[in-house]
Amino acid sequence: MAKLAVAAQHGFSDREYEAICQALGREPNELELGLFSLNWSEHCSYKSSKRFLRRLPTVGKRVLQGPGENAGVLELENGWCVAFKVESHNHPSAVEPFNGAATGVGGIVRDILSMGARPVALLDSLRFGELSDGKSRRLFEGVVSGIAHYGNCLGVPTVGGEVYFEDTYSDNCLVNAMCVGLLKKHELKKAIALGLGNKLILAGASTGRDGIHGATFASEDLLGDSEEKRPNVQVGDPFVGKLLIEATLEAAKLPELIGLQDLGAGGLSTAPPEMAARGDVGLAIDVTKVPLRATSMSPYEIMLSESQERMVLCIKAGSEQKFIDIYRKWGLEAAVIGAVIPECVYRIQQGKKIVAEIPIPILVGGSPEPELDTRQPRYLGSISQKRVTLAKTFDLRERLLSLLRSPNIGSRRWIYQQYDHSVQTNTVINPGEGDAAMLRVKGGKFALAVTMDGNARHVYLDPYEGSKRAVCEAVHNLVAVGAEPIGITDNLNWANPTDPEVYWTFEQAIAGMSAAASALGIPFVSGNVSLYNQSEARKIYPTPVVGMVGYLKDLDKRVPMGFQKPGDLVYVVGKLDGNFGGSEFLKVFYNFVGGELEPIDLNFEKRLIEAMLSLADQKLLRSTHDVSDGGLLVAIAEMTLPKGLGAELRLQLLTEEKLFGEWPSRFVVSVSPKDKNKIESLLGNAGISFESIGPVERTTLNVNGAAISLAELKTAYESALTRFL
Amino acid sequence: MKAAVIVLPGSNCDMDAYHVLKDLLQLETELLWHRETDLSKFDLIVVPGGFAYGDYLRAGAIARFAPAVQALPDYIEAKRGFVLGICNGFQVLTEAGLLPGALARNIDRKFICKSVTLRIENADSPFTHLFKPGETLELPIAHAEGRYFDTPAQLEKLEKNKQIFLTYAEENPNGSVNNIAGIMNESKTVFGLMPHPERNSETLLGSGAGLKFFQSLVYSLEAVHG
Asked: Which of A436, A465, A551, B72 could form an SS bridge with A477, CB 3.0 to 4.6 Å?
């Protein structure tokens, strides 16, 4: 019984504990239980999600590495490859926002490093409760400064991201960090251990007592006593993180390097056995060889520590000193802690004494998939029937300015100004200048575009359509800057999957993302799942976040967001009618979340994207902006801001639905008058509808006679976050 | 002619400065490891931006003890060549006493990354002679500790000697006294500035105006070396 109680403390169900005993042929000791608890945690094993994740499309002509490694890798041109992945640090950030977010950045950067890639960009997708709530403000400010603290010091530019504020996140904020890295194809590394007698080196920071059981902590609900979980949160050191990048990229050049893996969730208890599983070998490590920063740490503490800024390397026997010298040169620790052994087990020794031994196939991937039910949530039936009665008349100017002041719409300057987004001198579209950020690659003519998207209110209203929309939204943001979408990394943030209604939305969301990505031919190459984002009081909205990378062959063909020249013609391109469902407009003015979500016609979407990319490729677009949160008029207002140019517009139908509905498959573009015929015939031939709405103009935004000065627009837009801080 | 970019642990703009000197200006350039002390073969030494030693104590406070930085006073004394500190490099030079004053935490205590408008206050120096006096230009800043500060007596001396070569022309983003963004030593051989000219040295990244600082130095060196 005592054993079972210890097992329960480690988060095991009775069924799982039985499975362990059966696999080992005996009861596990406490250290073994600890190893199982991390390897079998939701965070590391994906046991509740993998049955659905298998349905996502993962193949494509550029895919060099799909899901299952530390990051996905796509081929670009001339041997250049891009590695990218997103990862959540939700639970730690909810308890300790600054360090939780900072170590989230550190962790995802090491994942990219593990592929042998140099990190070149960071993005962050964030969710908090409403800013009127003091706790949400504290979390928001803490998370932003934590990201800034870590990313700025590393010298990796933070170039993009997104943030939403909704009551549903007030107990569980979300922090999803995405990192993008560049490498040449021959530099690609894998997290693998191979070759009998080869050595395992632990490099980077020394090991302390911090973050013990972090992965297990991230795999349960966040209950009222979460303050007690503060010791589960790791503390990052970006300076050591920076040294680790440089030292590891130097070490990765040595031909004796066989495999490379970062120590993230689970530390030494998960990273080495994952390497062994990939190489179909065993590993023995000796805890007395691990460099420690605290005295008298037990094998249990050493193995379960989640101290940050550590990497593990599998190297050819005999080359140890070469690697150790490189890390020492950078002022870091490096020690041989183990070796590849013939028996397919993970063996932990304390000197000569074996203190734990578990067969690798059981430890990694051996966790039984829980039997979970799905049931369509009851709320869905009623919420789609809900209707709102609109005011009979409305003041267009007042409506627009109020929407621009909404924290979900207005300027993110307060955030991105705290992030170094220009270091490395590659950022050619900065935050605020385009729908996606863009990076040049020195020595190449091509560019990468990057974005993160996921409006969870839409997913809450309709998990399938809302998730399709998250994929399409990311696609649009890349297409708007002229880039072809080439790959996806996704972060699925959900509540407790043992709730059948929650689990149903999870299945639906994956089906929706899968449908959109398949139709548009974009593979998923990496991702992350964060479950149990709920408290006693509330569950988060189902929140899929889509990170996407785009490729632009000729960076001179990039397209900015802002209007460029008075006299240029403004068009709405794409689906010209739709509904209101899930809009920020309904939330702001009617405090209403409901209605039906306009479905996406993926065939039309595909044609629209091809037409837009063709226009961009022919350099016919002076500016482009995707219509999304806030709807058409907000999109147009955002286009006036970068260069301070207005427009004189006349819309055919002036309803609130038309002006502020958020239905998808729409862009606003501005074009030179001389290209009018070319553009109209190209769109016409492609079967894409469009509406010509008037010229770009110098000083005001004028919509069917209602004039709004650019200064007013700017003031409203810029105050969206700062008025709360 | 040869330039060096010092690589301190935590430097993160070293490659950006290297790119400008080596790739854009085709100047022979080396990355100089912080343990090196022989600076004699270099005509220009850049202390780049970043977070040297993590800047945990105070920006630049530990970096001043790096062997390469410790070798700078003799290099300067001998008038062997120019020294340029950008952002964290400027902080290191003030901590090392090679430029006067100090750089304190920004007035609103936050890291700021944005493009700012600057004015050339003194175009009569090896670092600025390609500019016109009073000319304005845009450069990115990216720092948390860029508020220049010094005693009134020292400031008066700086003004009198025209050692302030760059000021914030419109908004003062960090609270620097007298809007100071960049200063030089009395003998016009050591230059420090908080904005990043290397981040606006190509038209792809903006106006490209930052390149003129580096070109000024190169022409000045060419004049000496013939």
From this structure: A436
Domain of residue A359, residue span: 26-39+190-368
B113 is catalytic: no
| Active-site annotation holds for B30 | no
Query: Of A237, A243, A442, which is closest to B19 when you measure between CB atoms?
Result: A442
> Torsion angle, CA of A88/A90/A92/A98, rounded to 10 degrees?
90
**pLDDT tens digits, one per residue of A567-601:** 999 999 999 999 988 999 999 999 999 888 999 99
> How many distinct structural domains can be found in chain A?
2
**Interval A488-516: pLDDT, tens:** 999 999 999 999 999 999 999 999 999 99
d(CA A180, CA B104): 33
Per-residue pLDDT, A282 = 97
Residues of B in contact with A442 (CB under 8 A): 19, 23
How far is residue A121's CA from residue A418's CA, in Å, rounded to a whole number? 15
Q: Do B55 and A153 touch (CB under 8 A)?
A: yes
Distance of CA A640 to the CA centre of its chain: 29
Cα-atom radius of gyration of chain A, to the nearest Å? 26
Active site residue B196: yes
> Mind listing the pLDDT tens digit for each residue in A528-571?
999 999 999 999 999 999 999 999 999 999 999 999 999 999 99
How does DSSP assign A461-520, residue by residue?
H-HHHHHHHHHHHHHHHHHHTTPEEEEEEEEEE-S-TTSHHHHHHHHHHHHHHHHHHHHH
Q: Chain B residues within 8 A (CB-CB) of chain A?
A: 9-10, 12-13, 15-16, 19, 23, 49-51, 53-56, 110-114, 140, 142, 144, 196, 198-199, 201-202, 204-205
Going by CATH, does the domain composed of B2-225 fall within 3.40.50.880? yes
- Give this complex's ipTM: 0.97
Cross-chain residue pair A422–B140, CB shorter than 8 Å = yes
Q: Which bin fits B50, alpha (ψ -120 to 50), beta or left (φ > 0)?
A: left
In chain A, the residue whose alpha carbon lies closest to the alpha carbon of B53 is A239
Question: Average per-residue pLDDT in chain A?
Answer: 94
In B, minimum Cα distance to A241 occurs at: B10
Q: Are residues A205 and A250 in the same domain?
A: yes
Q: How far is CA A385 from CA A245, A381, B177, in A?
A: 53, 7, 62
A40: closest CA among A207, A229, A274, A348?
A274
Identify the band that residue A216 occupies on the pLDDT scale cut at 50, 70 and 90: low
Rounded-to-integer distance, Cα A709 and Cα B5, Å:
48
Q: What would the two tokens of residue A723 be? A: 């008025």
Residue A318 is part of a domain; what is its CATH number?
Answer: 3.90.650.10
Residue A479 lies in a domain: no
In Å, how far from its chain's centre is CA A386? 32
Q: What is the pLDDT of residues A666-718, one digit of tens each?
A: 999 999 999 999 999 999 999 999 999 999 998 899 999 999 999 999 999 99
Q: What is the CA radius of gyration of chain B?
A: 16
Beta-bridge partners for A75: A81
Say yes or no to pLDDT of A1 above 50. no
Q: Are residues A290 and A395 in the same domain?
A: no
Q: CB-based burial of residue A345 (10 Å sphere; 0-12 exposed, 13-18 middle, 19+ buried)?
A: buried
